[in-house]
Every structure is written in C-alpha cells, then in structure tokens.
Write a structure and sequence with these properties.
The chain is α/β, with parallel strands linked by helices and 240 residues long. It is built from 7 helices and 6 strands. The protein has a 6-stranded parallel sheet with strand order 3-2-4-1-5-6, sandwiched between helices.
Length: 240
C-alpha cells in the first residue's frame, strides 16, 4: 500500500477527511442493532472473491488503530462472520503488528463460524456436515456488536463523549456469493439445504458499506452490478 493511501486511510478512519465522513454512526442508518453513537461500524463487501477485501480490511483496521493514538480510544475490532479455509483474522493481525516504533490501539479479531475447506460456504457447510443458518449468523453478529458496545460503556464511563469504537466486518466472496447452507434456512426443501446471498444475509442489520470494486478485465460491469444489487436491498454505500 502506498504512503499516500495510508495517509488517506488514517484521515478517513479518524473522521478528519475534508469531504467525507468515512465511518458512520450505525444507529443513524436505522439499523436493527442499536449501538452507542460513538461505535463506528462498517461492513466490507467485494465485487467478487479475490478483489482485496482482506487487504482493505487490514488497512482500515491499521488506520483506525493508529489514528488519534494519543487520545483515549477503545480497541479496534475486526469480525469475519464466515470463514472457509485459511484465516483472514490471522492476516489482519499479521499485517497490523507494531511497526516503525508507532504506538497503536489494541486490535481484537473474531471469526464467528469457520470451516476447514477453502470453498463456498454453501458447499463446505454440507460437506463438513456443519450447517449454520442465516438466523444464527445474524443473531451472533448482532450479539457480538452489542458485547463490544457494552465493553466500551463499562470501560469508559468517564470518556463517553469523546471515546470511540471502530468495528470492521468482512463478508465472504462477492455481494451475491452464497451464505452457508442450512436445513433451517427459509429456502430449504426436502432435497436441498437452502442458502441466501451475502447481500440478503446481512441486509436486516442495515450496516453501512465499504465496497471493494474489481480492477480486473470486465470489472466495471461486475462492480456496477454489485453496487446495484446492494442499493436495491437498501444498503448505504459510504465508500468505494
């Protein structure tokens, strides 16, 4: 990542950008998860798999952790709801070690549901006989966000007006890539474990989005189609 890009990430992560406020108050978007006004949450979507969501997530986490490091700020949180093979959590931590003698806030990472096989969630959940329903994912993610919020309120009683929390949530695959299969999903039939798309999975939470486009050949069409899919489901896109 170039130096200029790092500086821009720090500016937007700290809310000091001249023309845009990158992190938004989730409660102002009408979210079903009611959080403290200083808890800034974003959901990362990508136009496709392998477009750099984890790289951008890592950069945003690092920028938020290093921004305003001389002031009181809660740890920065990274959440990966669905992980198939490997560990994006480990990647984010590896690329956010203390460097150049720069002090940063603590970084806390969580993976909510994981499978060993590097494939789509709707396949590996069946192959490994470990179904996770959409309701389970949304419920657990909501609970984790509330726990982070409660931790902030307990640890910062004297700093509520100025303290802030940053949480980055990274989706899996592309906007319309499948969620995990489960016999408890709404689209289940007698012969099929149902699944929904990533965009439909997280839509009830109404979390504002940071979107990672596709820079490869044909990426313009995929990027615009993905953005349209998010807009039609009511998502607010805060950055592309």
């Amino acid at each position: 990542m170039r130096v200029g890009q790092c500086r821009l990430l720090r500016r937007v992560a700290s809310g000091t950008g001249a023309t845009c406020r990158f992190f938004s108050d989730i409660s102002s978007s009408g979210s079903s998860v009611h959080l403290h006004p200083h808890h800034r949450v974003h959901l990362l979507f990508g136009a496709n798999t392998d477009v750099g969501k984890s790289v951008i997530s890592s950069g945003l986490v690092r920028a938020a952790a290093s921004a305003a490091c001389d002031e009181w700020q809660s740890p920065v949180n990274y959440i990966k709801p669905l992980q198939c093979g490997g560990s994006d959590e480990s990647f984010v931590l590896l690329n956010n070690d203390q460097q150049e003698g720069r002090r940063m806030n603590d970084i806390r990472c969580q993976t909510l549901f994981s499978w060993k096989t590097p494939a789509s969630p709707h396949l590996v959940s069946r192959w490994e006989n470990a179904p996770v329903s959409d309701e389970e994912v949304v419920s657990k993610l909501s609970a984790v966000l509330r726990d982070i919020d409660n931790t902030k309120n307990n640890d910062a009683d004297n700093n509520l007006e100025t303290a802030s929390i940053t949480t980055i949530i990274e989706s899996a695959g592309g906007v319309l890539s499948p969620s995990s299969s489960s016999p408890f999903n709404k689209t289940t039939t007698a012969d099929h474990w149902g699944w929904s798309t990533q965009a439909d999975l997280y839509a009830p939470l109404r979390i504002p989005v940071v979107f990672v486009g596709d820079g490869k050949l044909g990426g313009i069409s995929v990027t615009l189609s993905s953005l349209e899919a998010l807009w039609t489901r009511g998502y607010r896109i805060d950055a592309v």
